[in-house]
Amino acid sequence: MGSGIAEACIRSGFSVMLRVRTERSEQAARAYVLRTLARDLERGKIDRKAHDAAIERLTVTTKLEDLAECDLVIESVVEDLSVKRHLFAELDRLLAPDALLATNTSTLAVASLAAATKRPEKVVGIHFFNPVSRLSLVEVVRTLVVSEETVERASAFARSLGKEPITVADEAGFVVNALLFPYLNSAVKLLERHVASMEDIDRAMKLGCNFPIGPFALLDLVGLDVAQAILGELYQESGDPAVLAAPTIKRMCAAGYLGKKTGRGFYTY
Ligand SMILES: NC(=O)c1ccc[n+]([C@@H]2O[C@H](COP(=O)([O-])OP(=O)(O)OC[C@H]3O[C@@H](n4cnc5c(N)ncnc54)[C@H](O)[C@@H]3O)[C@@H](O)[C@H]2O)c1
User: Fold this and answer.
1) Model pLDDT, residue 237
2) pLDDT at position 224
């Protein structure tokens, strides 16, 4: 998601400092952005000049300190509250007082990340969708402590990327995942009960509901670990059994079958 967000930003004219943790991720992030831009050049969606200029605007670094000059930082690390809180506290010390701190979290309480900083009114959720280049929705998360100005700046930023922002309350899953994940989890439970094969359930939702992608292909795209974290957070907040993660999801995570990103999930890539 981090690479996808960076790519959307450089394409819209922003200079981006993409911070990753290792040299391997540095190469992978750069390769992802180059691949996506090259594909669009090939398909005639952008011209050579725009392609080259976008690449020029990207810097990938492993040093957190390189973010010090940024006006807006969008955190998109693993969906783990303690990891994110630790990072927010570090970023808060590093950034200029007027800089906005945003999170791409799918379900975690944005207010809890705000509370890890001394600028809670400048902390906001800017939640993108996967793949970032194709999906135009952005959920801008309004916490109890955020300022109206921050919400407006975040929404204007999303619009400047060609996205359509909606403002949502700081509740687990916001709008899309609160509706989507009970459905995805139910699909896995149908499979566990042998109601139909995985391929047929995917086919059913594509042909019967006109969905562009079936639930198992979507779970593979999202990542089973991310799905498990989202379901855990939804269950913790709602207590609704519909979002108690199906055992198959937990077993697949334990086995390292995380979906497209690991080459194997419900499908093999
Ligand atoms: N996958 C999706 O469809 C999707 C959609 C919208 C939002 N999100 C959110 O985006 C965020 C990232 O998800 P993703 O799908 O890109 O996951 P991912 O597993 O592809 O990437 C997670 C990143 O976090 C880094 N990371 C792991 N542990 C870390 C640590 N201890 N400290 C710092 N960095 C660490 C990893 O190196 C990796 O770059 C999550 O908050 C997720 O909820 C995901």
Assistant:
1) 93
2) 98
Q: Is 69 a catalytic residue?
A: no
pLDDT tens digits, one per residue of 113-139: 999 999 999 999 999 999 998 999 999
Assess whether the C-beta atom of 85 lies below 6 angstroms from ligand 1. Answer: no
Q: Is the CB of 137 under 6 A from ligand 1?
A: no
Indicate if 194 belongs to the active site.
Answer: no
Average pLDDT over residues 230-243: 95
pLDDT digits (tens, 9 = 90+) for 28-38: 999 999 999 99
Which residues are registered as beta bridge partners of 139? 127, 166
Query: How far are the Cα atoms of 107, 117, 123, 221, 251 from residue 131, in angstroms, in the given order?
Result: 18, 30, 24, 9, 25
Q: In order of start, what are the domains of the chain with their CATH numbers?
A: 176-262 (1.10.1040.10)
Pocket test for ligand 1, best of 1, 3, 18, 112 (most atoms within 8 A of CB): 1
Residue 127 designated active-site:
yes
End-to-end CA distance of the chain: 19
